[in-house]
Amino acid sequence: MWCRATMLLVVCGLLASFAQAQTNWREISPDVGPRIVKVYGAGGGGGLENYQTGFFISAEGRVLTVNSPVLDTDEVTLVTEEGNRLTARVVRTDPLLGLALLQAELSGGIAPHFELKSEFSPAQPGDDVFAVSNLFNVATGPEALSVQRGVLAGKAPLELVSPFDPTVKREQAVLLVDVVTSNPGAAGGVIVSSRGELLGMIGPERRSRVTGAWHNYALPTNLLADAVTRLEQPPVIPTSEDSAAQRPDAAQLARRWGFWLAPEISSRTPAYIDDVVPGSAAELAGLQPDDLVVFVAETSTASVAEALAVLTSQREAEQMALLVERNGELVRITLNLTKPE
Amino acid sequence: MKGAVGYWLLAVGLGAASFAGSELPAQPLASEAERIATAARITPATIAIFEPSGESGGSGVLVSPEGLALTNFHVVAPCGAQMKVGLPDGRLLDAVIVGIDPGGDLALIKVFADAPLPSATWGDSDTVQVGDEVFVAGNPFLLAEDFQPSISHGILSGIHRYQYPAADSLLEYTDCLQTDAAINPGNSGGPLYSAAGELLGINGRASFEKRGRVNVGIGYAISGRQAQRYLSHLASGRIVDHATLGFTVQSTSWRRPIVSAVSEELDPATDVQLGDELLTLAGREVVSANDVQNIVGTYPPGWPLPLKVRRGQELRETTVKLQPAHTTAQLAEAIKKMTAAEAPPGEQPKEAKVELPAEWFAKQAGFANYAFNLRERKRVLERCEQKLKPGSALHFTLSEDGELATSLKISSDRVEYRGPAGEFTAEATFADRPSSAPPSSGGLLMALWCAHQVLSGGDKLDSVEYLGELPLFEFEGAECDVLRAEHRGMVAELYFAELTGEWVALEFSLSAGIRPCRIELTDFHEVNGRQWPHGWRDRSGRAMDGSQHFEHLDIQE
């Protein structure tokens, strides 16, 4: 009986998914379209695109997109499908997934947005999906973004290596689609179900290190939701001259804890461990070069600057809890200055 | 536990069996059947086009039983005047170039067959929406040895797309359709169909990047509406140009584009001034300069487009007759460059070797194939009731109170008018300038002389050519075949109703920049067994009295 029930369920599932094969973009586009924006920023020369895609995730104008050189500017411009232009700035970036959280200046009103669900995508391989993005910047003005139709091909772990920062590596379960989404400007776009539900965000362009093929994938909503929760935690960033002066310099860190952070090339340089001093607390605790520091003392750290800020606030501490990412895994490390007797 | 596993496997087995059998749900089977039917419907009119040596090629679509087929200019550019066409039934036939549109990337060819050929049914590309199912048919990678087209299937990803011209090229895709149905090299010139199998556009371009020239889900088709507007112009055998408004607009941050320059080519009857804010064009809202170009690019020169502007606090509506964007020489130069770009690297584009009788191919500056212009001119005049024998004269009269009030004589040598407005004569032979009589008519008498020459096949005009179809003065006007005559700076355009073949209107310009004379012919009565107009209505707001009416027409043949 149990098996028969399962069987029926399978058939029902098939029916439902075939019924969706009739494209219903017309029905869902009034709902989905306004939530997605074209993102314009730095670039435009030397083969670097100055455009990508993003989407609203809150009524107050939070926008999720990918972290890329396009955002290397004070302000970016968001263009809605209606042609409305909004100014936005980067709130924080997430080195783990290569995401960026933006805040758009809304001129009154609320932004139509996707709710990020913290569950892994309920969509199943074979389900119809639509990919919506600003690929090739085809839709420049007051016009809808490009829509491609396909099916969810699978859910699989993918080692994400950012072309922007090749040292960022992480293996994550992502959504694979049979639509070519690895096109210029598509990153930050959405994969939605045939009912218009957000399934994931088209990730930065990445190719397989084994086959050289370009991956057509999306970061599922659960990863996005985690990242946004992380990013929304108020970062402890000293802004005044005073606290900047109090920030430990690299040499101080090395003397006290025994590690060197990566040089702070830009305000968004991820907090990588550059080197570990032999025999130091850091080495004893197991910290390694190339570890990416994502939490310091329970505070998420998206950059060297943020890591330094937290370390400053904890400069009297004898113990320091770090969460680092190493080869796709999160490792908890506690540095201890009090040597055990 | 084991039993359960066994049962499960069996269940999967049964599932697979039922897929092979007839127990599938009805909906997917119906969808599949529909797709198969559509593929079958769109196949016969889809053709493969090859350069005579077979080295390069593309696709095309038959649009008339007489073998006229649309394709891309960039497909036929390397072919010269002749090409080979493969039909899905396996035949390999000869074809000749008819007309080209290098700016819009369209070309029309004529396929020679001894029986009527299948042709596509047009759909309405104006009413499509993003998400609509579409089919692409064609010959990607010149794959099909038997000319059976490859069919791909997808949705419309975008509409009203604008694709910038490539460097050194006129080629610009305006208001085009974007699809994720696979379009690859070789699909160029082939048809984009709706789910119902109706022709929506001509595929021609795709966005490629790091993977090389293979489809990545972004292809573009010239809209069917644009292709339909250009079709008769291409059938004229001409090198067809794209248009300019005669004024330019600049995008502004407060949304509506502003008229930033007005050129000499602007239709003098158009009420547009520097600084006007352009609100709508051709019935569509415009918010940027790109929007404007996106609309203008889809209409051939000569098309009248309505527009709405804001001047200060005032809203004004006017009509602009589109002007050619290039001179004949500029077009020829651009084609040379574009043809060289399409030729294989290191090779000079071949000079066309033509092995066709003169009735199918003739060379002439400004034409892709002059033979087709001669054919179209003949067609238009032969079906026109107002066609005159050479040397004929027309005498229109109107009596009032038993006395001759108005008289108009038109012959090969002169036009004489006598009536309430005065007495005027326009001579066919003139020294410096043609007669502009009657005053402030825009040269109505010369206009009538030009029309007489065209209708009687006279040999005094510098040139007469078939232009294509244009709406009669208004955007939504009935489309008419247009014959265009040029003579010493004068331009006369005769409009012939598409349905009846009747001569229905005349537009005339004494010289560039002078407000043209536009009249619509009225009061059709029978004379010598044929319908003849006995009057006209002014459509330029300037001819004598606004309208004229005669009682009697005497034709001396």
How would you describe what is shown here?
The complex is a heterodimer of chains A (about 350) and B (about 550). Chain A has 7 helices and 18 strands. Chain A is of the alpha+beta class. Chain A folds into 2 domains: about 25-230, Thrombin, subunit H, CATH 2.40.10.120; about 240-335, Pdz3 Domain (Roll). In chain A, the strands form 4 sheets. In chain A, strands 1-2-3-6-5-4 form a 6-stranded antiparallel beta barrel. In chain A, strands 7-8-9-12-11-10 form a 6-stranded antiparallel beta barrel. Chain A is globular, with a radius of gyration of 22 Å. Chain B has about 550 residues and is of the alpha+beta class. In chain B, about 20% of the residues lie in helices and about 35% in strands. In chain B, the strands form 7 sheets. In chain B, strands 25-26-27-28-29-30-31 form a 7-stranded antiparallel β-sheet. The longest helix of chain B is centred in the first third of the chain and has 19 residues, at about 1-20. The interface of A and B includes residues 29, 142, 145 and 183 of A.
At a glance:
The complex is a heterodimer of chains A (341) and B (557). By secondary structure, chain A is of the alpha+beta class.
Give the SSE layout.
The complex is a heterodimer of chains A (341) and B (557).
Chain A: H1 2-19, H2 25-32, E1 36-40, E2 51-56, E3 62-66, E4 76-79, E5 85-94, E6 99-104, E7 128-133, E8 146-161, E9 169-177, E10 190-193, E11 198-202, E12 217-220, H3 221-232, H4 241-246, H5 250-256, E13 259-261, E14 273-276, H6 281-285, E15 292-296, E16 299-300, H7 304-313, E17 319-326, E18 329-336
Antiparallel strand pairs in A: 1-2, 1-4, 2-3, 3-6, 4-5, 5-6, 7-8, 7-10, 8-9, 9-12, 10-11, 11-12, 13-14, 15-16, 15-17, 17-18
Chain B: H1 2-20, H2 26-42, E1 46-50, E2 57-62, E3 68-71, H3 73-76, E4 82-86, E5 92-101, E6 106-111, E7 133-138, E8 150-163, E9 173-179, E10 191-194, E11 199-206, E12 219-223, H4 224-235, E13 243-244, E14 247-250, E15 258-262, E16 277-281, E17 284-285, H5 289-296, E18 304-311, E19 314-321, E20 323-324, H6 328-342, H7 370-382, E21 393-400, E22 403-410, E23 414-419, E24 422-427, H8 444-455, E25 463-471, E26 479-487, E27 490-497, E28 503-509, E29 517-527, E30 530-538, E31 547-549, E32 552-556
Antiparallel strand pairs in B: 1-2, 1-4, 2-3, 3-6, 4-5, 5-6, 7-8, 7-10, 8-9, 9-12, 10-11, 11-12, 13-20, 14-15, 16-17, 16-18, 18-19, 21-22, 21-32, 22-23, 23-24, 25-26, 26-27, 27-28, 28-29, 29-30, 30-31
